[in-house]
Specification:
alpha/beta, Fumarate Reductase Iron-sulfur Protein, Chain B, domain 2, FAD/NAD(P)-binding domain, five-stranded parallel β-sheet, 15 helices, globular, binds flavin-adenine dinucleotide
Amino acid sequence: MIPDFKEENAGYSLPEAIREAKRCLHCKVPGCKKGCPISNDIPDWIAQLAKGNFGNAMSIINRRSNLPAICGRVCGHERQCEGHCVLARKGEAIHIGMLERFVADFDSEAQWCHEDIPEKSRGRVAVIGSGPAGLTIAGDLSRQGFAVEIFEMEAEPGGMLKFGIPEYRLPKHVVTREITKIENLGVSIHLNTTIGQDYTIDDLFAAGFDAIFMGTGTGVPKRLDIPGIDHPGVRQAIRFLRRVGLYESGYIRREEVVIGPGDKVAVIGCGNTAMDAARTALRMGAAEVTVIYHRGPERMSALKAEYDDAVKEGVRFLWNTSVTDIRGGEGTRLQQVTIQNDEVTTIMPLDRLVLAVGSVPAARIVSTTEGIDVDERGYVLTRDNPYGMTTRRGVFAGGDVTNRPATVVHAMQDAKNVAEGIARYIDAVKLMEAIR
Ligand SMILES: Cc1cc2nc3c(=O)[nH]c(=O)nc-3n(C[C@H](O)[C@H](O)[C@H](O)COP(=O)(O)OP(=O)(O)OC[C@H]3O[C@@H](n4cnc5c(N)ncnc54)[C@H](O)[C@@H]3O)c2cc1C
């Protein structure tokens, strides 16, 4: 049976969530909180959930996270909170991700948690990019009394949450709901606005912003140097996934996704993006999908659960194998690739090849702005004091654009620290102005 795009995991019912929450031992030194990159107060909200105090549980989560319905679905819980749960040693870790998702989803419907929003009197912040880093900055600073405006080049906010992670793992309506909550804190979002093209950083300062945050991610996919790589039958995974996202949101037609029914598809790479591309190709009707990786399974960076799901759905894996030549056919269709495993060379008939070998930041902003230094691969350089400030005064950066492609919660963790850096910077500048 062809898998579809419906969310694959149904989530807990109310009685299931309470039963699971009651298993929590409320450890004095909670490993789960230590294992969470944003130090979510996990045992505290689980205790409220166990008593049926859903609004209180949500309020506690809100102290540390702006995106719980998303983290509850896509964080690597087995390596983080759940992996550090004392019950994990017996293989019985509390399903913290599922509980977090339950609280966030329940609150979105019931809306029992109401926040007091402070007056926006501490300063104005422009946030470039509306991925998890930008949304976290916006949520945190807005709660602290800053007026925040987000500038996003896409027609919808969310970054990789909307146009990278596929619908069956993270439904778009869930992302939209979380973003609406952030907008309700008083954050405004300007869509279809590319900084470095429509406006520069200097334009934003001239418009009166006190600080600017770059949370622009790593939107430029890396390529490989293989003969035939420029054939239109070779696609970049993040562009393929983006197209599927645009198709699902009704922006483009089915044919524009390119990979379609009956195609033989191979994906080069073995991270989570490769797993998503492989599983999405199956959902678009591909007849067979093979992941080709130049190392062994012990070196893959994909989460074990993602790999297991790909295997379950019929994705084939070729380990210690490289593609050495690509032969094109008519139009966007390939004919074959040559693959090499040890000394053995094989010809593999193929219609489409997808590259999932990483991505780097675009240079749009740094090439149109004086004074923002980057490293040799284009990652923005920042300092620790005030945390996250670039080499240009008042311009901050965080998330994947500084740290290399990582995870949602690591982008959030970094952004939380940068939010503190921005708040300190603006307060200090305003204080100096007042005493001058
Ligand atoms: C296919 C895929 C699957 C993934 N799966 C997972 C997962 O399961 N779990 C997990 O934790 N992580 C996952 N990740 C990683 C995670 O999505 C990223 O680490 C995270 O989104 C990085 O957040 P960010 O805010 O730094 O950047 P992004 O999410 O990339 O957001 C950057 C935003 O900036 C905008 N932008 C860029 N330049 C400009 C400009 N000049 N002007 C205006 N806007 C601009 C972009 O349009 C985008 O909206 C996955 C990534 C991919 C690609």
